Amino acid sequence: MLRYFTRNHILIGGFGCLLVFCGILYVHHGPSISSFCFCPGNDRRRIEHNKMTAGLCQDNGNWMIGELEMETGVKYAQPSTTIGRTDVNSVTNWNAPLVWEGTFDPVVIDAIYKRMDPRVAVVLFAVGKYTRFLKGFLESAEKYFLVDFRVTYYIFTDNKGDVPAIALAEGRNISIITVPSAKRWQEVVLGRMKWATVTIDKRIRNEADYLYMMDIDSVFHNRVGAESFSRLSAVLHRGYRNSKRTGFPYERRPASKAFIPMDEGDYYYTAAIWCGYLEDMYKLVKYCYTQSEEDAKNNIEAVWQEESHLNRYLVYNKPTKVLSAEYLWSDYDTVPAEIKVVRISQVIKNYKEVRPNGGH
Ligand SMILES: CC(=O)N[C@H]1[C@@H](OP(=O)(O)OP(=O)(O)OC[C@H]2O[C@@H](n3ccc(=O)[nH]c3=O)[C@H](O)[C@@H]2O)O[C@H](CO)[C@H](O)[C@@H]1O
Ligand SMILES: [Mn+2]
């Protein structure tokens, strides 16, 4: 019998089976994630993960937090309906989580999110003398930041040679992008929005699902993990966490695109760490870039550069998660009782010495 099956028969038969299989997948999962695809840039872990989920993967830009599944047998403390943090607010008035130590269980979070296995990009600028902060940032990030997740650090610098060689865990990479030097620090902080927009368009979009924008003058001291994931997550600025909204350093000049009136606004967010789905972050990074370009045309620069534009956007486009100041503290400040864990802290730096045009 067998000899009647030519190679062509086998090929046609095999192809037929594949079509039927794809058809079943399509009916099961609907058109949004229906393509039976090879995901470029995926490593072994993703391939194994795909096997678990019937070979499906999501198109670039479509990654999102999926089913909150976990395997059986994970051991963790039982959550309470009445006991939790009472000294802080852990939900916003638009019903988004406000994350503090004690509002999540890392065992549960990891059991859920490691299965989703997003490709994470971190955009970092180290221009001029700021390359000196790379070592402390990267070494501590390898210890505490999204351990066991896939992470690519995109380092934008004017001095490739000063990027230190750091031992990275499996699934983690460094990509260096050359940018011009600057005469004013304001140029760098605003330039981040331009260069990030251009580079997301050119390549990051094809390489990542989730994006963090972060200052480089920071060191990780404790876990920063998947509890920070959401469509768009912003971090409370430690300096204004208890201020009245009239005291927030929002841009108050109506001539600027970042203008926020005195009687509006929720929180003051730092621009030194923010994160979200790749396309949501792209939209916001591009917004900061184009709004600051508009301001420049009108000869105005927002009081806190991109941070002012970021804050304006977030008043009218609420973040889906707010992270407490645990996620960015500062070595300058004593730690108050409500901060049980400092996760990241800005290092002390001599502004005058480190910035090309000195000063604040
Ligand atoms: C805690 C906090 O809210 N930080 C914000 C605050 O700054 P900081 O005073 O912390 O600003 P900064 O000096 O750290 O500058 C922001 C970042 O830009 C990069 N950089 C800056 C200058 C330079 O010469 N080379 C270079 O690489 C570097 O990644 C640095 O971390 O205000 C800045 C804008 O005014 C940004 O909004 C920061 O996110
Ligand atoms: Mn900083």
TrEMBL record:
Question: Is the keyword Glycoprotein in the record?
Answer: no
Binding site residues for UDP-N-acetyl-alpha-D-galactosamine:
F125, A126, V127, Y130, D215, I216, D217
User: One MF term from GO for this chain?
Assistant: metal ion binding
Q: Which residues take part in binding Mn(2+)?
A: D215, D217
A GO cellular component annotation here is:
Golgi apparatus
The Swiss-Prot or TrEMBL record describes its family as follows: Belongs to the glycosyltransferase 6 family.
Q: What is this protein called?
A: Globoside alpha-1,3-N-acetylgalactosaminyltransferase 1-like
Q: Give the organism, scientific name.
A: Zoarces viviparus (Viviparous eelpout)
Upper classification of the source organism reads: Eukaryota, Metazoa, Chordata, Craniata, Vertebrata
